[in-house]
Records
---
Amino acid sequence: MSIDRATAAKVAKLARIRVEEADLPALADEFNAILGFIEQLQELNVDDVDPMVSVTPMRLPRRTDVVSDGNQQAAVLANAPDAREGFFAVPKVVE
């Protein structure tokens, strides 16, 4: 697949990127270089390659998914300029 000036202009428009008319050939060349690299990668046989998270085999730490209030109410309200009855107090804005 080859990208021409018109396609490069269309991609730039879709990406909301302003590209001067004189810069379109260079942009098309960059797109073609990227597509060439992708074609090179597609030639690799990765059928027997397992997906991995890290270069070292390890299991990611997990925790139980438990809903809680965080036990931080006092610490959070300590930063508030005005707190009443365990909540932030704010001035009334609607009459």
---
Amino acid sequence: MSTSTARTAPPGASPGASPGASPGASPAPRRAPAGPVTQHDVVTRAPARVALALARVGTAVVFLWPFADKLLGLGYATPRERAWLAGAAPTQGYLEHGVQGPLAGAFTATSGPVTDWLFMLGLLGVGLALLLGVGLRAAAVSGGLLFVLLWLSQWPFSPGSTNPVVDQHVLVVLVLAVLATTLAGDTWGLGRRWAALPAVRRAPWLR
């Protein structure tokens, strides 16, 4: 005769149910994996999303226009004979003669072809990211760093400055931060498709 005690399931319990489960209780449903956060989750009003999209496109032009002007010499800030494609240097003249303040020597020391490439690629990369609505976090960091350096190269604390605290360079940095944190690339951009890419989902900083 076996010495083991047989356990009987309580009435109404399904076979294999745990002893502590309530009679008639069904297993908890599995939740589907959450998708990436979209701008609709962050900005709930449609007019605000449109305003942010307009700000994103406008800020893209802030970066893409000087790139095109310095590359081709469109005759605005850069005459045709001083275009990069004509053999001129986009940044060397400014770094050698246009910087001001106690950091002028440090900026002048960076003058050279490498700085030209970094500056032009920075303008192009940030501008395209803003225009397409992808990689706004990286664009905000890169573009913000570029404009902070431009701000310091003008040394706004000198006498005669129009505003020693907030000028157009600082405003661009602030706008970039707003665009990145509000996922402004989702409206009139490729932000949602970009966020759904496996690489971007694994590395949210690419968002």
